[in-house]
Amino acid sequence: xxxxxxxxxxxxxxxxxxxxxxxxxxxxxxxxxxxxxxxxxxxxxxxxxxxxxxxxxxxxxxxxxxxxxxxxxxxxxxxxxxxxxxxxxxxxxxxxxxxxxxxxxxxxxxxxxxx
Amino acid sequence: xxxxxxxxxxxxxxxxxxxxxxxxxxxxxxxxxxxxxxxxxxxxxxxxxxxxxxxxxxxxxxxxxxxxxxxxxxxxxxxxxxxxxxxxxxxxxxxxxxxxxxxxxxxxxxxxxxxxxxxxxxxxxxxxxxxxxxxxxxxxxxxxxxxxxxxxxxxxxxxxxxxxxxxxxxxxxxxxxxxxxxxxxxxxxxxxxxxxxxxxxxxxxxxxxxxxxxxxxxxxxxxxxxxxxxxxxxxxxxxxxxxxxxxxxxxxxxxxxxxxxxxxxxxxxxxxxxxxxxxxxxxxxxxxxxxxxxxxxxxxxxxxxxxxxxxxxxxxxxxxxxxxxxxxxxxxxxxxxxxxxxxxxxxxxxxxxxxxxxxxxxxxxxxxxxxxxxxxxxxxxxxxxxxxxxxxxxxxxxxxxxxxxxxxxxxxxxxxxxxxxxxxx
Lengths: 115, 425
What we know:
heterodimer; A: alpha+beta; two-stranded antiparallel sheet; 4 helices; 6 strands
């Protein structure tokens, strides 16, 4: 069963992080990704560019509306994601808990809709 | 077709439903992840049995017959819901899984414990876990559960549906958790079992079979969990607590059907066998060195049954136990019981002072035991008018006619005597 781990965090804090802290974060994610790969659960994952780079598109009254910025202006923003393939929610939850993002932000676990 | 066969088939189906409902739901749900689907299929299978059994005779193994029919219904339902490549593969897997499981078993395996843990999973809202267990394991309908949990039937049924969807969609596992998570998750399971038991036990007349069954089912679930997890002290503690309460079920009514409070009960009318069993469980639990709510509450019952030998409850022990429970639960109910113990150890004025300290809790305004306890202590100190008013509040809040009658008696006796303990020892 595939689950998406959506990593939310305070983007402003992340960008303002000291070199030292950022320097710890990258290897932590690297090790996490490596552990997932070794365990055979990793399907995919990426870090996203900050929301200042986001563009929101929507069709209203037949016209394409384009907004500069993220879909929702909230304190915590989607900053990255992983897709994993594990047997059940318990396994997905334990991977979510190991994610570095779970200690400085929030990780939402969502099952993938199977057709 | 002859009516006698009809009756017999109906009786057998009902007996199987009573005995095996949860087991069959658990079996089907654990293999498909679909609790609601399992319940629907099983209810279809019971309906089919009522048509088939009078005509073809009752099958040798009614459980296996019902499982086979329910299994087919589940596969049909899944086929209707899904289409396309993935669906075919999913259906084949599901059919194989159910078939292999059913065929290889001479009897249906018991997956009730895994199902209970799925219902009490941390990803399920805490408030809906107990209702979910009552529905899936015991087959109670949403309306019955709603009335026990003081929620409207529509809301309850909606929340149950949502929880079952969550189990299926997020694939919450059906298994007993690993040791690291066991204690925490077990707590939710035990809470649900106790909620079921308490609902049944609160009908002392035992007139409503349905509710009396609830207490029996609670004990049954408690035995199941205690036997499957014999090293979990709180599982043993809960069973001990329920057995202690059950041992006094009959003693709560006299021959005329009138309510008899614990203080006035004849210890000889308690069920000695259940008490011995409870004491042995509690002793085993206490040796494991992890105290919890249920062990403490069972220990309170223990301190009451000492009356069988000592002639009086061990009130000093009861006060200490309620102190420990207060620290653990912060429940106003515990605080009321503690105040009653304080009155016994340090006199009614001290007990009243302990009750006064609770007066700010808005929940108590509608809580009968608070007013009954208050009335009893006021009568004891000789404050007749205040006691009279408190009895009136208690009487107005009591739904059980026998208890109401008892409180009315006490209220009438007020004018006759004062300054004596209300025989609450």
